[in-house]
Amino acid sequence: NQLVRWINSKEQHAQKIQNTIMEYFLAQRIKPKKSSDDGYSKYVDLATICQNIIFTAMKTKQTVDLLHLEELNTLLDELVKIYFDNHGKKHLKELK
């Protein structure tokens, strides 16, 4: 029974990450830009990192391989580096 609870918890956490990226970052925070707009490169980087996070979170639901978890942590760190300013990064550190 405990194993089933751990698996369910792992899948729920991965789904929450996917939902947050899709419903908050991609739908509300990361605004689409045209290739001629300022900040287009940053937009592409953010959208690509978000897509990779969603994909890797899906992989963490499918397997118990810790490699996917490590990759997910790396991608989340990349998102923090690109998306947040110094104030936001400081706030995140305070939350940890």
Structure description:
With 96 residues, the chain is mostly helical. It has 4 helices and no strands. The protein has helices spanning 2-29, 40-62, 66-83, 86-95. α1 (2-29) runs antiparallel to α2 (40-62) and α2 packs antiparallel against α3. The chain is globular, with a radius of gyration of 15 Å. It starts with a helix and ends with a helix. The model has no long low-confidence stretch (mean pLDDT 94).
List its traits.
4 helices, mainly alpha, single chain, 96 residues, globular
Helices and strands: which structural class?
Answer: mainly alpha
Calculate Rg over CA atoms.
15 Å
Beta-strand share of residues: under 5%
**In this structure, how is the largest beta sheet organized?**
none
What overall geometry do the principal axes of the alpha carbons give?
globular
Mean pLDDT: 94
Q: Can you tell me the residue ranges where pLDDT is under 50 for at least 5 consecutive residues?
A: none
Task: Summarize the SSE layout with pairings.
Layout: H1 2-29, H2 40-62, H3 66-83, H4 86-95
Helix pairs in contact: 1-2, 2-3
Gist of the model:
With 96 residues, the chain is an all-alpha fold.
